[in-house]
Specification:
By secondary structure, the protein is mostly helical. Helix content is 69%, strand content 0%.
Length: 222
């Protein structure tokens, strides 16, 4: 019975992670498939760019909640408690299942987003202190560079550094996971890295002045 419950909860976490927030909102309220516009990504950044910042925030919050909720599905089973050594490990398994669901959603042909928002939600549920610091790093980098992709990668790379050198984390599962986070962000942002190197990556214009928006428009049209 223990294995059956474990598998069932993992599947549920994947199904929750698979909820394609931006795709469903785009189809229902804007009559478009967000993946056919902008960067082609089904995440909150592209939703903000194509559907507007209000919709982008809604997508961001829901995608974050998917990660947070999936981790907390652990409370549906009596086999894992905070006192047991496998508690954090199973939390990470649930979060990973949700993350895979977001990147490869079963509901819309396995074409999802990069998983940054869902990843944030799951690590916030498991280890909030370094996650909130990474949020600050993300915001500062975004304000300086105006690149969401670069800000996400720098914040992600900061996560294992904070875990190891600042918070002195010794739980093997958390340490391995923090390193996997950095690698995963690198893999899911390959196209963004290529565009950054070619100076073709789009900046978030809502943080810019009118003059800055005009310069960005000229840069992208060059």
């Amino acid at each position: 019975m223990h294995i059956v419950v474990k598998i069932a909860v993992l599947i549920l976490a994947y199904l929750i992670g698979s909820i394609p927030t931006s795709v469903w909102i785009g189809r229902r309220f804007f009559k478009i498939d967000i993946r056919e516009h902008g960067s082609g990504n089904a995440g909150s950044t592209n939703a903000t760019r194509i559907l507007g910042w209000k919709t982008g925030i809604i997508v961001l919050l829901i995608d974050m909640f998917k990660g947070w909720l999936s981790v907390n599905l652990i409370h549906l089973t009596q086999y894992y408690t905070p006192e047991t050594g496998n508690f954090i490990t199973f939390q990470l398994m649930l979060g990973t299942a949700a993350l895979l669901g977001h990147i490869f959603p079963i509901y819309v042909g396995f074409r999802g987003g990069k998983g940054v928002a869902t990843l944030f939600g799951l690590v916030l549920a498991i280890n909030p202190e370094p996650t909130l610091i990474c949020t600050g790093i993300f915001v500062i980098t975004l304000l300086i560079t105006k690149y969401v992709s670069l800000s996400s990668m720098i914040a992600g790379f900061s996560f294992p550094i904070l875990m190891i050198f600042v918070f002195k984390e010794t739980t093997p599962a958390l340490l391995v996971f923090s390193l996997i986070v950095s690698i995963l962000l690198l893999l899911t942002h390959q196209k963004n890295i290529e565009r950054l190197l070619r100076n073709q990556e789009k900046k978030v214009t809502f943080l810019m002045s009118k003059r800055g928006k005009e310069r960005e428009r000229l840069r992208m049209s060059a």
